[in-house]
Amino acid sequence: MTPSQLDTAVRRTSAAVVAIGLLAVTGWWVVGNHADGLLGAMALGRIAGLLSAALLLVQVLLMARVPVLERAWGQDALARQHRLVGFTSFNLLLVHLVLIAWAYAGGPGRLVTSTWHLVVDYPGMLLALAGTVCLVMVVVTSVRAARRALRYESWHLLHLYAYLGVGLALPHQLWTGQDFVGHPVVTALWWTVWGASLAAVLVWRVALPLAVTARHGLRVTSVVEEGDGVVSVYLSGRRLERLRVEPGQFLVWRFLGRSGWTRGNPYSLSAAPDGRSLRITVKALGDGSAELRALRPGMRALVEGPYGRLSPRARTARRVALIGSGVGITPLRALAEGLDYAPGDAVLLHRYAREPLFGSELEVLRRERGLAVVDLPGPRRTPDSWLGRIEPAVDDASALRAWVPDIAERDVYVCGPHGWAEAVRRAARAAGVPARRIHTEAFGW
């Protein structure tokens, strides 16, 4: 079985496990509530709460950095599913709160007083209320309009309260939930699943990064200005050939000794790993990225990863097209160096505003490897296009076919801002590229 086939099998299996789990939760609710009716406010409130909790569990696992899921889905796809599952879980939580409060009150007349007694008198309800407040804060700050108003560092810190919210909301289900009280086997199973999820977070997001950091001892060797607010950071360490990072992948970086080091930032490698050193190239778009130019040789780095599916693992065709915008060229620059291809089999389309990044390096790859490079300078012609002004004025898909006539037979790797990357994906699909051959990594948060 090829890596691509294995990843497809993992994606299908994981999706089936989630579906089976939700069906099992629903089935248990039917068994426990059929005698009293399934359409009453209390029963519907219970199933909404059970499904909300089950989806919270899925959320935790999606972001637990479980390697088999990371390799099969890629971080971008997992993040999209995490967002969808999160909003669905939160909506179900609101339905649960409203229906349960209504059922206990018996109508609108005693809604406030009944809700107060429910929260104060039942075990675990005060904890659940505190957990709900945490989750509300996370959801509100995850709405795109709110995210645009926040710094990445602030949003990242607030988002960590999701773990606290989940932990505080869980006990009341087991202490007061009719579907668990008096059912020790189901309760034990529920605790076991949540315990395994917590273990996954602690192993893959805490223990493993600490072990990787200790094993490889990554340190900054130099910081180089690339121009236009962009810097490259070079790092060295021990036994880097065992880091198992592929061209195009990213790691989450924390540079010890600088302010805000506890907050990780995802940065892609901008050069193919050679077992001796690593390079990341970053544009100053936030507090964390702007501070990288102040790094000094010898500063240590704590890393998580590698992550991402924008790598040779996703490749299914002999020929490839690499399409990047601005600093999104960084993982594609690493792929252009690290992929195996014959002259003419790889083409790089680079959108940039003023000066191309890595211009001299790409010229070397053009001469030595036969990489075809298409420069696309200037601002985008319209917000829904990935192109600048071109002559003749043709649609995005036609322009893509003109530059890469066999685009439908290639793997297409895309990296850039969310809206721009989506425009490239639409153009590639319109040009005949199958969805399975479009590998996208959009930077942003």
From TrEMBL:
It comes from the Bacteria. Residues 213-313 form the FAD-binding FR-type domain. Gene3D superfamilies: Nucleotide-binding domain of ferredoxin-NADP reductase (FNR) module (3.40.50.80), Translation factors (2.40.30.10). InterPro entries: FAD-bd_FR_type, Fe3_Rdtase_TM_dom, FNR_nucleotide-bd, MRET, Riboflavin_synthase-like_b-brl. It is found in: Membrane. It holds the Pfam family Ferric_reduct. The chain crosses the membrane at residues 12-31, 43-64, 84-105, 125-146, 158-176, 188-208. It is a multi-pass membrane protein. Its cofactor is FAD. Keywords: 2Fe-2S, FAD, Flavoprotein, Iron, Iron-sulfur, Membrane, Metal-binding, Oxidoreductase, Transmembrane, Transmembrane helix. Its main location: membrane. This is Oxidoreductase.
